[in-house]
Design goal:
By secondary structure, this protein is an all-alpha fold. The protein is built from 7 helices and no strands. It has helices spanning 3-20, 34-45, 52-66, 72-93, 96-120, 132-154, 157-160.
């Protein structure tokens, strides 16, 4: 396995670890969507390698990790990465604030899809805090972007994809 795949795998594994890490009861509703943020970054940075197939399998792993209906996170992840894949050239030249706004709406759509499935299963949330991961993820996007960009540059990831 080459260095590029190791860096990508390590960041996704790190995001999964953050996604399933135990939190205090008051902080559970505020957990950012780490895996989605990392996949968004890699889909923008190296769209030839991160596409809807990777998003589908990553979403299925999230479904297994959270114990949700199979495909619930996967379909949302596919939708988000598909839009990012189509718009990656525009998003790469946008400011971090503009990227955060786009990511907010994509994460909101993903959250609404998940809410729809939960509602059909009779597990609808009883609070508006259900949408807090979208807000916290949007607020953390600039730092996520900067950290992953620095990792990509440090290990010259883009040289390996050409």
């Amino acid at each position: 396995m080459n260095k590029t795949l190791r860096i990508g795998m390590m960041t996704i594994i790190g995001a999964f670890m953050l996604a399933i890490m135990p939190l205090p009861d008051w902080a559970v509703e505020f957990r950012p969507e780490w895996v989605t943020l990392v996949l968004i970054y890699w889909a923008m940075a190296v769209p030839a390698r991160i596409g809807v197939t990777v998003a589908w399998f990553t979403g299925l792993l999230l479904d297994v990790s959270y114990g949700t209906l199979m495909g619930q996170h996967a379909i949302g992840m596919v939708l988000v990465i598909y839009v990012i894949h189509i718009q990656h050239q525009r998003l790469r030249v946008a400011s971090l604030m503009q990227q955060a706004i786009v990511i907010f709406f994509l994460l909101l759509i993903k959250q609404l899809l998940s809410l729809w499935v939960d509602g059909m299963l009779g597990h609808a949330p009883d609070s508006w805090l259900y949408f807090m991961p979208t807000i916290t993820s949007t607020l953390l996007w600039p730092w996520t972007y900067l950290i992953l960009r620095d990792l990509r540059r440090k290990f010259s990831v883009e040289k390996h994809f050409q």
